[in-house]
Write a structure and sequence with these properties.
The chain contains six helices and four strands; from the N terminus they run H-H-H-E-E-H-E-E-H-H. It is mainly α and 155 residues long. The chain has one domain: Winged helix-like DNA-binding domain superfamily/Winged helix DNA-binding domain (Arc Repressor Mutant, subunit A, Orthogonal Bundle), CATH 1.10.10. The strands form two sheets. The chain has a two-stranded antiparallel sheet. Strands 3-4 form a two-stranded antiparallel sheet. Helix 1 packs across helix 3 and helix 1 crosses helix 6.
Length: 155
């Protein structure tokens, strides 16, 4: 299962906001410099994250973005779904809001799709991994990799 650059760059953006703490907003240009990501793409992603209630913005000379909630309260399932939509390992796989799964191949005949069980398990594993990983976990991991201290107020 491949996620698009929306998920990759969006998670990197969220980690950078988490690393900066929640005291001062972070300009997207700072994230662009630190993460080597295209500014125009980040603007598109941050709009989705803001709409999902994961980040908030502040206008003005010292404006930018910050996390809307503490990093410990943001799981990666929320982030990825805000950026990618529903998690589906195959094009024929359609999860509904209640968590039930339908397969477009089931409409082809009277029998159940032979692979539905497999893709349901794959989808369940991915959502469990994403839901069990918080932004604070990723910030802590990133800090351990770079040796940079965590900013006060961040995870």
């Amino acid at each position: 299962m491949l996620f698009s650059t929306r998920a990759e760059y969006g998670v990197r953006l969220m980690v950078e906001l988490g690393r900066q703490g929640d005291t001062e907003p972070v300009a997207l240009s700072t994230v662009t410099e630190n993460e080597h990501l295209p500014l125009s793409y980040l603007e598109h992603l941050v709009a989705k994250l803001r709409k999902a209630g994961l980040v908030e913005s502040q206008r003005g000379a010292h404006g930018g973005y910050r996390l809307a909630r503490p990093a410990e309260e943001i799981d990666m399932l929320e982030v990825v779904q805000a950026l990618e939509g529903a998690i589906a390992p195959m094009e024929c796989f359609h999860p509904d809001p209640e968590g039930k799964v339908s397969c477009s191949h089931e409409a082809d005949g009277d029998h159940a799709c032979a692979t539905k069980m497999l893709w349901t398990r794959v989808q369940g594993g991915v959502t469990k991994a994403l839901g069990g990983t918080t932004l604070a976990d990723l910030v802590e991991f990133a800090e351990g990799q770079t040796g940079k201290p965590v900013v006060a107020g961040a995870a």
